[in-house]
Each structure stands twice: as C-alpha cells, then as structure tokens.
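Minutes, methods subgroup
Present: GH (chair), OT, SY

1. OT presented the first of two proteins processed in the latest run. Sequence and structure tokens recorded below as shown on screen.
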Amino acid sequence: MGNPVVHFEIIGRHPRKLRSYYGELFGWEFGVGDAATEAVSQPGDYGFVDGSTTDGGINGGVGGGEGYEGRVLFYVGVPDVEAALRKAETLGGTRRMGPEGTPGTLVVGHFTDPEGHLIGVAGTR
C-alpha cells in the first residue's frame, strides 16, 4: 500500500488575510501557532486548520509572511524523511529543504519532481 497525503499548506505573504479568506470561503477555523520550522512560516503565524471544521478532511495549514514564496503544497506521510528525500533525488527530483523539525514529533522536507513541482514529505524522523 502506498503512502497517504497527510497535510496541505497554503503559504503566502499575508497569512492572516489568507486565513480570513479561506475561513469565510470554506468555513475553516484555525489554531494559530508555530509551523514545524521557520522555513515554512514565520513564527507564531501558521494557522492549523481545525479538523473538527472540515468534516473528515486531511490536516492543513495556512501561513507564511513577508519574504515567503507563495505556494500550495501537499505533504505525503513517510516513515523516514531523509530516506524519502534521497529516493526522490535518485529518481530525478531535487531536494529543496530538509529534513527539518523535531525528530520523534514532526520532521518535514521538500523536493521538486523532475518537472519542477514542489512536494512535501512528513514523518517523525
């Protein structure tokens, strides 16, 4: 069985406005705090989508800040982020970030596929 999509992100220069927009559009509510790493969003300005407001959807977050490149990204759950990034590279992808985070809790990484699409991987190591 393959690895599941476990998280999505919407990153932009004005995260509060984005959270307001998506909250009103889709009825999402957010718990605001820190992302797994400052490479993802400025400290204290990452809004985790409250899963109880999404009727069974996957976890997500809206964050960023000045100087953060806008993007929409999904994360695939993997047992070992470093191993997944190495495999992505051997298959023609390019590592962009990571692994970063707190081993045992949450570790993330980014890579681009051979056509340049940004993809995230997340795990506990």
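2. SY then presented the second protein from the same run.
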Amino acid sequence: MAFRISKEQEWTFASAMEQALRLLGPRSLSTLELRRKLSQRSVPSELIHDVEEKLLSLSYLDDEELSEEALRAYMEAEKHSTYYIREKMRERGLAVSYVLDDYDEWSVAVKLLEQRFHISDEERLAAIEEGEEDKFSKKKIIYFLKNRGFAVSTIQSICYEWGPYLE
C-alpha cells in the first residue's frame, strides 16, 4: 500500500525506512523522537509503526541503551540539575534509571556558581574593594540556581554554607 508524500510522490515502506535511516544517521534517536520526526514529515502512522518494528528488530532503535548513554552524558557534563536531566530524558521518551539518585547536584551547583560568579575569598575581597559586592548577592545566586532547576534544598544548603560570602 502506498501513501501520498506530495502531489507527485507517495510514501512506501521503503521510502519511510529510508527517511528513518536518514534521521538516525547524525545521532541516536529514541523511538518517540523518531516517531515525532517521521510524523512531522507526514509519514502515515501505519508506516511509522512498521518502520519502528523493523528498526527495533535490527537493533537500530534501542531506548534502553540510549537512556543509559544520555543519562551518563548529562551526568558527566556536570552542568545540569537533577530536575533538568529528568525533564530532558522525559522529553526524549527515555527512562531515568536509579543511577541518577547518586548524582551530586550540590557539587554541580557549586561548580556552576564558581564558574559564573568566580567566588573565592580573594575575589570576594577584591570585588568589595572595587564596589562590586552586589555581584555576590544571595538573590542573584538563588535566581541563578532556581532558573536552572536546582532543588530548593540544594539552594538553601549552598546559601547557608556560603553565607559569609553573600550580601
């Protein structure tokens, strides 16, 4: 059975499979992501289902392996909150394993703050001498972390520990 691609073309299993393989070329996609992309290209849902089944049988789609790889990459990057990672995984249709429970969100938040605000005793004193003490305001740090999805408990803990550095 053929489906119309445009006025001149029709979707077939072969053309849908070719499109799917083209989409999978640059990077691994989850089953959900591939489904969405094929659907956006007006591939009929029946063909999407057939192509998906074939790709699964060939191990070209493997959401479990992709979940592990994506989670590891997010965690190793040390740039994101637990909430952010969970949301990105959910958007991709990937499961989040228990491994995320061991993610040290506090250390990641501290690292990001140090990069963003350059907080150290020497720099803090230098900033105060130059009249830039608002650079280290508690409010700025709270908004910085909150807007990146860090947990309230993480933000409170950092504010408590960094209290002497904050205005």
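Chair's summary of item 2: The chain has nine helices and two strands.
Next meeting: continue with the remaining queue.
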